[in-house]
Amino acid sequence: MADHDYGYTTWGKDWVRFAESLRQTRPDPQLPSARRMARDGKVQITFDDRTVRAVVQRGRGTSVVTIEVAPMSAEATAEISRRLSGIQPLLTDDLYRAVADAGHPPAPVLDSVDCSCPAGTPRCVHELAVYYDMARRIDDDPRIALDVQGFFHASAGGGQAPAEATAQRWIALNSLDPAAYFTAAE
Ligand SMILES: [Zn+2]
Is residue 2 part of a domain? Predict the structure, then answer.
């Protein structure tokens, strides 16, 4: 069933979808446990550029989940940058939809997901708990959704964006202070 504690922003919802794929015909029976673990603070996340590392506690056991997030496409980066060039840029649901409607959905793509636990299932409960915790964090601060895709790195000029994509747009973008990306949607 829907759990509105996670993914109440479109930015956060992307991470809920990793746990609750629309392609699944039945909910994963591990989901309630995963949600509870995220809610109870059993997931400790650290970020290193586009790598998410999480120490997940379950019972007496501890597992380490490592997720590599693909860089945001140059097109999506440029589209968001263009729309954020106002005086007080806001990472709202409306902005997300506008960027998606322009043909460059900013949803994250995971390059790899790994857990140290011995579970033989395609997805373990630790990984699911991390998706929920990421959704919770991003709901609180949508900048994380961009940061973990290398948005600020790319926009600072050190990124993978092809030069021809947005040479002119980078100029405007570089004048933006990431600290000015407000988080409140209302
Ligand atoms: Zn695991």
Answer: no
